[in-house]
Amino acid sequence: MSNADIASFSYTKPIRVLFVCLGNICRSPLAEIIVHGQAEKKGLSSQFTFASAGTGDWHVGGLADVRSAQTAAQHGLDLSQHRAQQITANKVNDWDWFVAMDDDNRMNLLAMGVPENRLLMMRQFETDSSISLDVPDPYYGGAEGFEAAYRMLCDNADHILDYLVKQSR
């Protein structure tokens, strides 16, 4: 490379986005894979690093909930490589953005020191002001709860992605 090439070359690190729920086996792995898929479809995947984590440690190292994996598979997505991990205060600086699945997750992230201006709610861009911003936790319910969570995540994936792209400019 010539000096001119080096001067005109600008490397931008990928934007690091962490999707967060309680145990990292239901909602946040689905959100991660859905938004990552949308980024690929839009040719944006090289601009992002996506991952997911839970605020609790109960499932660390475990697979995605079988119902979450089945819901993903029914829609052509693969969660077989997912392993649950936990977000802790000492890992907050590893991420540029946090996307919480519900208000409890949001409050836990704030308590860990996540700055409010780097914290989004998965459903915050929905236009119906009468709805909750939470993606309900389907863990204690049946398969229909996982399908409902999947639809909510899909409905909001582009909004989250568009917002993150705008913030990176």
Structural commentary:
The structure is a single chain. The protein is an alpha/beta fold and 169 residues long. It has one domain: Rossmann fold (3-Layer(aba) Sandwich), CATH 3.40.50.2300. It is built from five helices and four strands. It has helices at 3-8, 27-41, 66-74, 103-111, 143-168; strands at 15-21, 48-54, 97-100, 119-121. A four-stranded parallel β-sheet has the order 2-1-3-4, with helices on both faces. Strand 1 (15-21), helix 2 (27-41) and strand 2 (48-54) form a beta-alpha-beta unit. Helix 2 (27-41) crosses helix 5. The protein starts with a helix and ends with a helix. 38% of the residues are buried. The model is unreliable at 1-11 (pLDDT under 50).
Summarize the structure.
This protein is of the alpha/beta class. It is built from 5 helices and 4 strands.
Q: Main sheet?
A: 4 strands, parallel
CATH topology: Rossmann fold
Number of domains: 1
The radius of gyration computed from the alpha-carbon positions, rounded to a whole number of angstroms, is 17 Å
Low-confidence spans: pLDDT under 50, at least 5 residues?
Answer: 1-11
Distance between the termini: 27 Å
- Percent of residues in helices comes to 25-40%
Report the structural category. alpha/beta
CATH class: Alpha Beta
* Beta fraction: 5-15%
Bulk shape: globular
CATH superfamily heading: Response regulator
Note the total helix count. Answer: 5
What is the string of helix and strand elements?
HEHEHEHEH
* Oligomeric status: single chain
- Please tell me the CATH architecture by its name: 3-Layer(aba) Sandwich
Mean pLDDT: 92
Strands side by side in the biggest sheet: 2-1-3-4
Number of strands: 4
